[in-house]
Write a structure and sequence with these properties.
The protein has 136 residues and is of the alpha+beta class. It is built from three helices and seven strands.
């Protein structure tokens, strides 16, 4: 059986450099309610820490091309050997704007309801990236 995949794209009226900074510059990322914790090297840990200092996600950077590509794993917080998904962000220059493409390859059985919720979560997350990047 094929694993579920969520693929989303959004056009952001900002340069790829600005969109990239929404992910990598903690002072900007905090406008989204937290920050990514990483040293931004392939093989390094990669997680999301909320404003309350709680770690909500954990994984490893699989591929990285600054300003172009970020691919990371998402691991179970309790069982760090359990792969939940692989997430890929592509930052595509489109004139003066950026097309941000996000793909999540889900590695576990998911109900239709949870898949729908995950889809909606991606829409909201990308809208937030767009909002923050366009205000820079």
């Amino acid at each position: 059986m094929d694993k579920p995949v969520i693929k989303k794209t959004i056009d952001i009226n900002a340069s790829t450099k600005k969109v990239w900074s929404v992910f990598t510059d903690p002072t900007i990322t905090k406008q989204m309610g937290g920050e990514y914790v990483s040293d931004w090297k392939v093989g390094s840990s990669f997680g999301w820490k909320g404003k309350d200092s709680s770690v909500y996600t954990n994984g490893k950077i699989i591929e990285l091309e600054p300003g172009k590509l970020l691919k990371h794993s998402l691991l179970d917080l309790k069982d760090k050997d359990r792969l939940l998904s692989v997430i890929t962000y592509e930052f595509i220059k489109n004139g003066d704007s950026t097309i941000l493409s996000a793909t999540e390859e889900i590695n576990y059985e998911i109900t239709d309801y949870l898949f729908k919720e995950a889809n909606e979560g991606w829409d909201a997350a990308l809208q937030l990236v767009k909002y923050v990047a366009e205000k820079l």
